[in-house]
Amino acid sequence: MAVTANTTTPAARPPAAASRTGAAAVTAALILLVAALAVVDITQGTASAVGPSQVWKALTGRADTADASVVVASRLPRMTAGLLVGAVLGTAGAVLQAVSRNVLASPDTLAVNAGSYLALGLAAATGLSLPVLASSGVAFAGGLAAAAVVLGLSGPGAGTVRLVLAGSALTFGLTAVTEGLLLLFPQETEGLYQWNQGGIAQNGFDGVLQMAPVALVGLAGLIVLARRVDALALGDDAARGVGVAVRATRVTAVVLAALLSTAAVTLAGPIGFVGLCAPALVRPLARRFRAFTRSRARLPFAGLTGAALVLGSDVLLRAVVPPDTAVAVPTGVVTSLVGAVFLVVMAARARDTAGAAPAERLHIRSRTVLVVTAAVLVTVLVGLTIAAVLVGDSKLLLGDVANWAQGRSGRTVSFVLDTRVPRVLAALLAGAALALAGTLIQAVTRNPLADPGILGVTNGAAVGAVLLVTTVPLAGSLSIAAGAFAGAAAAALIVFGLAARGGFRQNRLVLVGFGVATGSAAVVSLLIILTDPFNATKALTWLAGSTYGRTLPDVTPLAVVLAAGLAVAVVRRTELDIVSLDEDTPKLLGLRLGRGRLGFLVLSVLLSATAVAAAGTIGFVGLVAPHAARALVGRRHVRVVPVAVLLGAILVCAADLVGRTVIAPAQLGAGLMTAVIGTPYFLYLLVRGRR
Predict the structure, then answer these.
(1) How far apart are the first and last CA of the chain?
(2) Could you give the C-alpha distances from 263 to 87, 138, 628, in angstroms and in order?
(3) Cα angle, residue 522 at apex, residues 519 and 523 outer, rounded to 5°
(4) pLDDT in tens, 64-84
(5) What distance separates the 2 farthest-apart alpha carbons in the chain?
(6) CA dist., res. 123 & res. 139, Å (int)
(7) Tell me, what's the pLDDT at 6?
(8) Pick the CATH number of 34-324 from 1.10.10.1590, 3.40.190.10, 1.10.260.30, 1.10.3470.10
(9) CA-derived radius of gyration, the chain
């Protein structure tokens, strides 16, 4: 009975000839679709006078000079770039998924694009003016290094959660460093942010002609390597049994995939999620037509699918958005939104498996350890707070602070402290709030690698806040806090609502959160691109986690929410301990698990939203602080909550102090500094979990 249920009989399989015929028919239909999209794409543009008839005349050499210039110099290169970029990204994603045996491997999830972005940012910041091919080499080195790190951490055949966590963490850290370069060197890196959103618009065929040979080399190399890639799908041992050099094949395939991704990145910037969606659309066909199970047929078909996705996104954008606005919106924003929705749907429908987060050991600490740890942290926090108030562009003394508190200080000292004290308070309270939010989320989901940033809540809050910053420049702190809460609530509703169906299992929770975070980031990019440069700079500064310009009214809502959150966490500390154990224990003790879980999640969303409104997006605090607290004082929340809150406040206050003093008078946001600190720690947790 078991054999019958799990095996497909030869009679049930389509004949080989029928399979080849069906595959050929599907391929022909896809080619026709791509051709139709290419034709439509050529007819779209800002020059409304250049319609289909003028395009036809330009292609046949019968149009006037102005119409022919529009078609030949702009529309044809754009269409050709879309074809090339989509084809290479679809192929790169297919081969990365094959050699890693992971359906979520792509240039996006392997941080290839983030590595290329950082490499080009470093080159631009140093003042280097590189030709196209040299820029391609720099991007290739950065992308390949990032992919090697992610694949090394996840390993072939590793769970999708580990791959996504490693890739998203490294992407976050590398992007934070690059955005720091953009803020420090605005003139040298001008245009790099918009380039990072991905757009296929071209000015002539120069870029396409220079990148086409690079793409052809990569595609040809993968076709030659196709048989060995097929052998890897059988497993490393089976591949070695048929004489395939597993390590060399895998390294060569990753290098060629990185080369293809680099060609796309150099030509059009990062076009998000094409390398993920195109192979996913091919997989159902491979189950129906055996011809697509072989890489020599699957890789070109994935490339055609990628071309259809890119051209389709460009056609859709220009059909829905007015032409003048569509010019400013990069195609990569559209593909990122489509890909984020695709990933959320795929994660919600996927069957969950065992989680990949590292299991934490049960540490039993004495009361003495708790007292000593708390005393040390309080001492550090007090000293750090004093240093943050005294040190800055103007150095002060404790006597100046005492006079200011009594209203007896001079005008200069009063001005300095009136601006500095609120930002120190914003850093302290934001760090504490994010740490508490992370503690609650990790307890409710029983996932030590969960935090508001990784699960998309922080990015959702950023959407709401940036929407107000860019559309209502005079919006006050309460309005921004309300917008941030609305965005965080929407993101949390999607993430936790879909994850709750499976009991907050790690796979579904992390994958849905990753999709929502990516989609929210695309919306934020769209808002920044469409707004005026002044608002864009303000939004970028805010997104970097800056406390610059904060006032006491800005931090008052955060202080109120934090006080309420601490009170709830302390009063319900025993319930937190029970909920964090398993699904059955709370029910046996008569607790309403769903109601209690919902209350803690709502509180964590409120904490995250108010922290984002007060200090911008600050990542990894909600992960690092609770994790370190459990390592120091054990897992009982009566101990974890105060220690995590102290650690979060220390981390963000220190990051803010370093960011505004080390390279003064220039400043780096606290969010950038916490990303630099948090990314290595997060990757360390993944390495430890793998061991």
Answers:
(1) 39
(2) 11, 11, 41
(3) 90
(4) 555 566 666 778 888 899 999
(5) 94
(6) 10
(7) 38
(8) 1.10.3470.10
(9) 27
